[in-house]
Amino acid sequence: MSELDTLGSAAIARIEAAEDLSALEALRVEFLGKQGSVSALLKTLGQMSPEERQSEGPKIHALREAVTGALAARKEALESAALEAQLASETLDLSLPAPEAPRGSVHPVSQVMDELAEIFADMGFAVATGPEIEDDWYNFTALNMPESHPARAMHDTFYFPDTAPKGGKTLLRTHTSPVQVRTMMADGGPLRIIAPGRVYRSDSDATHTPMFHQVEGLVIDRDIHLGHLKWTLETFLKAFFERDDIVLRLRPSYFPFTEPSVEVDVGFAIEAGRRVLGGSGDAPGHGWMELLGSGMVNRRVIEMSGLEPDEWQGFAFGVGVDRLAMLKYGMDDLRAFFDGDVRWLRHYGFSAFDQPTLSGGVGARP
Amino acid sequence: MKFSLEWLTYFLETEASAAEISAKLNAIGIEVESLDDPAGQLAGFIVAEVLTAARHPDADKLQVLTVSVGPNFNGGEPLQVVCGAPNARAGMKGVLGQPGAIVPANGMELRKSAIRGVESNGMMCSTRELGLGDEHDGIIELPADAPVGTAFADYQGTSPVFDVAITPNRPDCMGVYGIARDLAAAGMGTLKPLREHTIDSLFPCPVEIRTDDPEGCPAFYGRVIRGVTNGVSPEWMQKRLLSAGQRPISAIVDITNYMMLAFGRPAHAYDLAKLNGAVVARRARDGEQVLALNEKTYTLDSTMTVIADDSGVHDIAGIMGGEHSGVSEGTTDVLLEIAYFEPERIGATGRKLGLSSDARTRFERGVDPAWLDEGLDGLTALIQRICGGEASEAVRAGAPPSEPMVVSYDPVLAEKLGGVAIPAGEQRRILEALGFEVGSDWSVTAPLRRHDIEGAADIVEEVVRIHGLDNIASVALPRAEGVAAPTATAAQKLERRIRRAAAARGLNEAVTWSFIPEPEAGHFATGPLWVLDNPISEDLKAMRPSLIPGLLAAAKRNADRGASSVRLFELGRRYLRAENGGSDERLTLGLVLAGEKNRRGWASGKAQAFDAYDAKGEVLALLAEAGAPVDKLQLMGEAGAQFHPGRSGTLRLGPKTVLARFGALHPATLAAFDVEGPVVAAEIFLDAIPERKASGFARAAYSPPALQAVTRDFAFLVDAALPAGDLLRVVKGADKDNIVDARIFDDFRGQGVPEGRKSLAIEVTLQPGDKSYDEAALKAIAEKIVAAAAKLGAELRG
Asked: What is the mean pLDDT of chain B?
């Protein structure tokens, strides 16, 4: 082994053994500094004969390269170790909680109304609205309930002392049906609308609140009959509950604003103490529950709404929105809907992103 | 309305079971609310004879009975039963509930037990315990011939009881016979013809009967029966009345009730001895009073029809008889009244008096105008059969309506309206079975009792309901080609969007009452309130003029339940007044933030309460989501007296259009609602947000600038009262070509800042166009900014 080789191996061994950056710097000065040993070797090149230089030059340069490389490698290794050591002292307890963000919610009534709008839009229905403070002409008279009609008394109506601008009494609408009349008057036929909204009856117990929500449906055209009503309700309920086994039972009934009038029951079973819609109410373990009122719009209503009753006919239906929400999402106390208890709202409410869509299904699962 | 199967089959020949009949009733529009089988309820109760009765050794009021139960029970051996009834005695027959039987009145299961140390094998029962009446003074006493060991249900001849809801358009079904007719038409059997009565009229009616109010009482028929004995009604009648939930009273009262429940035909019987002079249907005089059978006194007015004699009013016509002239045990001569009252007047009178009765229910819906003579004769015959007596000739004052409704019908309508093709012959059969007359030209004459028939649609309903709604096939609504077109209006889309935006921002949507306590509404009122005439309670009385009071009350309830942080919003209407006094309902988003914005935390330290900036933040974010031009909004004051005057504001588009108000609530508001503060609130008036002009989907053309934006900071000393927003606005407007954004990042007062001044630091973002800024350009922009700020008295801080 040549003298140069010995010098090189010794230098590299010492560099690799350097324990910190200052020791390494000292070595750099010792080898490559102005007075350094490798620098001294480089200086000897000048006094050499061309032949000597020819043979020794590359060796000395190689030695310098090797030492420089070893210094750089060691420096990187020492810095990296120092960083690791520093990071090791900087750990965070990530089991501590992250900053909190409040979780908002959409009320079940709003959610169900959005679901209804989505389903009925696919069937060509628009959403219509009307005032909640109504006069008795729209709420009763135009719906074929003249002043003396016994059905008026059955409506448990809230009245205001004020006389309506057009005369008559001012009241809180007892159903969403006045919107039928207003829409027919404003738009004429043909029509397909649903009219969701607040309605009021002076009635309060475990299952009734003085304010609740209804959705009205109305189809006016030239050849609409009870078969279309049946299909519409079946199609709507199957889509709403996302079940194909919804079975309806139609029963003749009486509403002043429809003729014929049909009460609609839906079959259910009791599962885990809850009513679950589906199946025939006559099947074992099943029953029927009253869900909707409906019928063919009474020609007097069509007439009073300014349409020609020999030309236009159609059906209407009404159903409780809160009731639909309870049946679908399992709440059992209507009064809690209107209490604003944040615990209830968080439990039964919906994420802002539960926007009903046809492709995703209109219902939101927990 | 309740009735027993036994009663129904008295009028309807049928083999059908109670369950089949129930299903058919539902199918034809007579809703069965319940079908109870008392035989099932009375399982385990048998006829028993008391053999011996001895005093209980340890209880004065109890007896120890030995009771014979017949050969089929207990191996034919008598049973020992402890009994507390005073009338229990040896030799009597009664009803024994055996261990295992369930007492109908309270649902308790009987058990073999020891009562004060004496073994008891069941219970001797009272009428009330068996749910057969109110009697509870002692145990049931059965006649001596009651067969011991027979099931009591068999002995009693119990029959299933239907409870049905009759829709108000069908007063003809407010009697069992009418229901039987509908069932027969629907193929449930054969309607039995009614018995025809021939009354021997032995003398002229001794009382003058008139109607002086032919409008209110078009027809008043009557007759006197002399020499009746008003004892108890026969058992068959009592059983039927009891099945209907009607307590037997006396034979004559029971007979009139029976007529009403069997035929839907109310009638009245007066004690002739208590009448004085002619009996007249007339209008009441204003202020005239009558003590009715319910022992309440009613003050009448001249819109009401009454039956009166020379001494006064005896009957609120069609609603309730008078106490004074009613029949009693001692009655020997009766005057029967069977009348036709005008339905609307009965309804109006009943509502005015707040008086309901079975008679009113029927008269106000319309009884059968064609059944006065039959009714009077039927009533007479029943009274004579049960109570004896001699009948006078009938007197008929006035005449009931007799003009039938004739509808020109076309059998095709069943399919056109009802959606089901029914052969014309079947339609004819159905209508005739219901008592309609059908001409060869399909002119259909409704029976007079069918007040509900107005036109062809009603005939369709009759035909379709009897044919069966189950037979209607579903038919799809015609569908527009292609994907369903959108239907939501701009306002509906806005509502949906802002709701979900608020929920996404962490607010919980509530739905609160539209009506609130009047003082709370008054606190937020800006004009006359809508106040209910007949509120259900004082808490639900005035329509809300703002969404904040309802949310505030909800926030308080939550706080009372221990919630430390409440973020509630509601989307609903405020109820205001239009100029014409009508309703002006405005869609509004209200929000209330109460309690802690941030809970205390390991990193954030102490809990932070909500402040007015939180309300501002929500309002601006939601307005932006709603598409309002937030950059153009002006911040102004006058949020309303409900808000802290120095910590609230309004956001306006122009000086008059208020889009929102927000801020901390006034301590007086919090005190009025008994809420602990601070509470911040806001309202966004959705109807004030301008509708965006319809546009296509394409956005304005845009490509990100090639050159990088630069920022420069400026600190200005300004008057401490100067709104920071004013300074920001002039800075932003100083060089619109270059300044794309400016934002306040510091508001400092104190050391180094003169008294009465503050230092506002603004970071300005500059966007170079096609070439980068050089020092001269930046200096020019900075000078413009400083000059603009100087107009507000701002000096650049050194």
From this structure: 93
CA distances from A254 to A312, B31, B462, B466 (A): 21, 11, 12, 15
Any idea which of B254-258, B326-330, B508-512 has the lowest mean pLDDT? B326-330
CB contact under 8 A, B504 and A126: no
- Which residues of chain A have a CB within 8 Å of the CB of B27? 251-252
CA-nearest of B396, B494, B468 to B691 is B494
Q: Which residue has the tokens 């002692």?
A: B138
pLDDT of B130 strictly over 90: no
Q: Are B504 and A353 in contact (CB under 8 A)?
A: yes
Chain B residues inside the 8 Å CB shell of A223: 416
Which ipTM did the prediction report?
0.89
Using the Cβ of B482 and the Cβ atoms of chain A, whether some distance falls under 8 Å is answered with no
* Rg, chain B, Cα only: 41
The shortest C-alpha distance from A223 to chain B (Å) reads 7
Cβ pair B416:A109 closer than 8 A: no
The pTM assigned to this predicted structure is: 0.86
Say whether residue B747 is in contact with chain A using an 8 A CB cutoff.
no
Determine how many CB atoms are found less than 10 A away from the CB of residue B696: 5
Query: What is the number of other CB atoms lying within 10 angstroms of the CB of residue B722?
Result: 16
- Cα torsion B272, B278, B279, B285: sign: negative
**Across the interface, which of A230, A253, A338 has its CB nearest the CB of B167?**
A253
Phi and psi at B55, nearest 5°, equal -65, 140
**pLDDT grade for A243, boundaries at 50, 70 and 90:** very high
- Best of A214, A342, A351, A354 to disrupt the B interface (most B CBs within 10 Å) is A342
Average pLDDT estimate for B437-459 = 95
Burial class of residue B141, CB neighbours in 10 A (0-12, 13-18, 19+): middle
Q: Is B671 on the interface with A (CB under 8 A)?
A: no
